[in-house]
Amino acid sequence: MEFYEALKRYQPKDEQEAADKAIMLDCIERYANVYDRSNLLFHVTASAWITNESRDRVLMVYHNIYDSWAWTGGHADGERDQLKVALKEATEETGLKSVRPASEELLSIETLTVNPHYKRGKFVPAHLHLNGTYLLIADDSEPLRVKADENSGVRWFAPDEAILACSEPWMRPVYQRLNDRMREHR
Q1: What gap in Å lies between CA 47 and CA 57, rounded to an integer?
Q2: Residue 116 in contact with residue 138, Cβ under 8 Å?
Q3: Mind listing the pLDDT tens digit for each residue in 129-141?
Q4: CA angle, 72 then 27 then 73, to 5°
Q5: At 130, is the secondary structure helix, strand, or coil?
Q6: How far apart are the C-alpha atoms of 45 and 85, rounded to whole Å?
Q7: Who contacts 122 (Cβ-Cβ below 8 Å, separation ≥6)?
Q8: CA pair distance 76, 145, nearest whole angstrom
Q9: What backbone torsions phi and psi does residue 113 show, to the nearest 5 degrees?
Q10: What is the pTM assigned to this prediction?
Q11: C-alpha dihedral over 50, 129, 28, 37, to 10 degrees?
Q12: C-alpha 34: how far from its chain's center?
C-alpha cells in the first residue's frame, strides 16, 4: 500500500503520533520530492522492528553513523510502498532470508531528526525523516551477517535489553513504544 494512504488510515495512539501524522501528511501533500533524498529538509523513510515468532527477541544492528544499536530501515528512494522498503532494508542489513510482515499496517510513525554527518565521504546536512515503522517477523535461528558499509553488528536482544543497548537516549522511548505495541500485536 502506498505510504500516503497508509498514513491517512493510521490512527495515532498519542499526542506525539497525532502531531507527527499532521506534519507528515502536510509534507507529502506539499512536496513532490518527499520520497527522495533530493529533498534536503525532510524525506520519507521506513523502519522495521524485527521480532521472532514468540516475541521474546528483537533484532538490532549496530549502526555505524549513529554509533548505536538500532532498528533496521532506510530511505524511500522513490518507492511509495514503505512496507517494501522496510522488508528490503531488513534483509539487506541483517542477512535474513525469511522475514515477513506481522501486518501490512503501520506499527508506529515518527518524525525523527537527523544530525549532520558524512556518508560515503559526502556531507549530509541536518534534516527530518518522516518515518513509518512496521513489525516484521523473522526466524531467530537463521544466520545473520553484517552489512559493513552501514553496520558493524547484528544481534538478537531480549526486548528490554534492546532499549538498554541503544546509546541514543532520544530513541529509547521510541523502542519502548515499539516493544509495547509488539507485545499487544497478535
Answers
A1: 17
A2: no
A3: 999 999 999 999 9
A4: 5
A5: strand
A6: 8
A7: none
A8: 23
A9: -85, 140
A10: 0.96
A11: -110
A12: 17
